[in-house]
Amino acid sequence: MATANIRRCPQIAATKLTGALVGMDANLPTDDCYISESKLSQFLDVSPRTLYGWRMAGLIPYYKIGGSIRFKLREVEESLKAHNRVGPVAA
Question: Which among 6, 23, 28, 50 counts the fewest CB atoms within 10 Å?
Answer without folding.
Answer: 23
